[in-house]
Amino acid sequence: TMLRIDAILDELFLNTDPYFLFPDFDENTRATTFYTTGTTGDPKAVAYSHRQLVLHTMGILATLGPMSASNRFHNRDVYMPITPMFHVHAWGFPYAATMLGLKQIFPGRYVPNRLMELISEHNVTFSHCVPTILQMLLDCDATASVDLSNWKVIIGGSALPRGLANRALERGINLFSAYGLSETCPFLTVAHLDPNDEGRVEARIKTGRPAAMVEIHVVDEAMNDVPRDGKTVGEIVARAPWLTEAYLKDEAATAALWHGGYMHTGDVGRFDEDGNLMITDRIKDVIKSGGEWVSSLTLENIASTVPGVAEVAAIGIPDPRWGERPMLLVVQDNPCKAAASDKNKAIQKMIRMAFKKATDAGAISKWASPDRIDIVDEIAKTSVGKIDKKRLRAQIIKAQH
After folding, report:
1. Which residues have a Cβ under 8 Å from the Cβ of 228 and sit 6 or more positions away?
2. Which residue from 68, 212, 256, 275 puts its CA 20 to 30 A from 24's CA?
């Protein structure tokens, strides 16, 4: 069947005029419609016009093209997306790659060994994916034999854990973070690596600076900007010419999204003194314990640096006294079935030691350390590979009753 399809496609290409005259239509015509992934709430329908997609494409190129560091996106790259096309237009990069005239490799199903083979075969230099997919790629058998030193990878969709970033850098992968939402088409910010920063994992895991034509503010509940001191956090709000104007058929959600004239991302973050944005949590993922806000991303970062931790999710679970208490779900790297109980205890002990070290150093308060650490076989994901914390919380609550 596949051979027949390939033959039909070959015939279509051979018998098609190489020049296509596009019809003339209003640039504000709707081009795409899709649903948000519903990681923290119900999925909602968003839409984008042709004008917005063009401006978003120009925003990508105007931001990543002029970079002086090695993570720039340019016309000699070989591009392979590892993000589904249905997930915010594969982050918009297929449009940018087409505008640059790049060689593009579309891999089909995300089979880790096959992806590594394609990177090697076609000398792929630029990709993007969520952290869980990068984890799968680093763990697959074919990775050991592939030279990844020319591979640039944007990590988005969820925060890049420090431990995973260290693993990727050890393999020579030029990875760095970017930030956006289904509602923002999605490009908002990207890590800018000065040449002196290229070996520093701290620079790579920052959410980065606003892209061209993007305005970002971190605000309090009254929509006032909080100090850019690297410490004070608030909600991230944004404006750009390509942000979705409304949720389709949902006026109440649209009004909340655009309250005060800026798009509310639902993310909590802070600016450092150099203008770099750092996401500290989703508003709905912040663990509220005894009146103190505990960042789930901070807990995940600490645990991710422990040897043997492949994946980690921090969630708040109901507590009759404190409202919520932090809990960790951990997937081990290459778990040993024969000695599962002993290995579980060993890795739990190492994680607790890592949190003690963090509290002793003043990185987090003792109160923020997780009460419970569960070793699990897998962590629930959404359709695009992001950790599904809404589902995880529901599973834990159900198991408790």
Report:
1. 218, 270, 271, 272, 273, 275
2. 212
